[in-house]
Amino acid sequence: MKTLEIHGSTGDSTIRVGEKLQNLGKYIPAENVVIITDVNVKRFYQNNFPPHPVITIQTGEKIKNLDTVRSIYGKLVELGVDRSTVIIGIGGGIVCDITGFVASTFLRGVKFGFVSSTLLSQVDASVGGKNGVNFKGYKNMVGVFSQPEFVICDLNLLSTLPEKEVLCGLAEIVKHAAIGDGDLFEYLEEHYQKALALDSAIIERLVYDSVVIKSAIVNRDEKEKGERRKLNFGHTFGHAIEKTTGVRHGEAVSAGMVMASELSVKKGHLQAKNAQRIKSLLGDLKLPTHLPADRKTVFDALQKDKKRKGDRIYFVFLEDIGKPFVDQISIKELEDIINDFY
Questions:
Q1: Are residues 297 and 202 in the same domain?
Q2: Could you give the CA distance from residue 235 to residue 250 in angstroms, rounded to a whole number?
Q3: What is the per-residue pLDDT across 26-76, written as a single tens digit (0 to 9) for each?
Q4: Do 112 and 227 have their domain in common?
Q5: What is each CA distance from 292 to 86, 304, 325, in whole angstroms?
Q6: pTM listed for this prediction
């Protein structure tokens, strides 16, 4: 097991890569604990849960909303939860997002932690203190910054994931490598087949190195005032594609990274050969490099991006693999790029 620390304004968070769900009891009190999970995780792993009340939710982006939050609030009231209670989310990104948001807002905030069960949540959603839900289909429009007490990344839980869920996690690992570590990018290029096969040694390095990159950025900029914006590489286009097509997050971000790389080339920041390396690696990892979508609906969704400031958006460019920078770009220029792609 390897550990990393995030020091946030709302508290410190310890990420434990390689720890086991079965050891969760070591990190929580003996009583006053409530678990939130989804139907799939409960089906596979409930026998490994500690003996505490369990609130079970459904799966998919369609339930990541205020209706689900309201339902959980009601169950917490029925359970008599008070401020001494610790809420634990066991599941993927949706479970972690909802759990963090519920815990941060119920009774004005109670302690919480995560056991992350998907590759995507282990390298992204569960780490960094962003907790939120969607509103009218727009990603994470309602949320808070609040750090979990701990995150357990149990790599053994990845064995029951459908392949498409594994691929979504690999997309975020590519993103971390593209913005933070050229050596990790080369490692992925060399070992992509073993990554797809969930080779334990390869996956442990990929998860740990990704968390190193993200936690270092979050430690320097917890609330996304500057450097943390780099973690949005591929997400400006990706979120718009996800909203309008309904594809999985990692698939949309994959296509978004290709668009962001090609825009970086077009503006003279990135060499075309490096944009091609990104596109080729994503293709090798069975991820989409282009997704059909209606240009008007993509543009409409993009205009509601949280990073928008007036008629401009903070956008993540690359000048090399491992060397990103953030600059404002006009909405009109992004519309032109969308028109070029669609």
A1: yes
A2: 10
A3: 999 989 999 999 999 999 999 999 999 999 999 999 999 999 999 999 999
A4: no
A5: 43, 20, 28
A6: 0.92
